[in-house]
Amino acid sequence: MGNEVMGNTDIKAAIAAERRELAAVLDGLTVDQWDTPSLCAGWTVREVAAHMTMGFRYSLTRTVRELVRSRGSLHRMTDRCAREDAAAHTTRELSALLADNADHPWRPPVGGLAAALGHDVVHGLDITVPLGLDRRVPEDRVRIVLAGVNARSLRFFGADVSGVELRATDLDWSFGTGTPVSGAAQDLLLLAFGRRLPPGRLHGDPTGRFLLGRA
Fold this sequence. Notes:
globular, 4 strands
């Protein structure tokens, strides 16, 4: 079931459920797990969690002010704010912010509700995958986010999947042309958002280019 057949009410419910489930995951983490490197390059689990709650805590005025401080670079702004906010909030506060704002209407500047769900799903995987937690994102949520994968989104997230065809092994989804790379749909979603994965999650000859630690 993709976002072409799901209404806004359904997507809002999926966002709220995703946030509550991720908050429960965060509540169960140890101190060492909070400080584990995430799939977001340069960020720990703590910094990803801080970034996920930024939209709930920042007014439009503050966002503009922080963007000006970062000389107009959204990347510099989000990186700096994630680090500052991770240091300013306890882990309990960060998980509570996610749970308490499950129904918050925040969404990215472009992409609408589906992009808001994608933000939460992908950042949640940024946390659970490197921690080795076997969390399966419900299929309906994964399908909504996969439906938004296109050439424009790949460029935005710096994802290079040229020369390969991504093939999901757990649902009927594929993208691109070339040598097949197969894996669980949520792992392929991470590739489409510019992430690299630990070994053993992908199959196919070109998988090495998508692995953590490879140049």
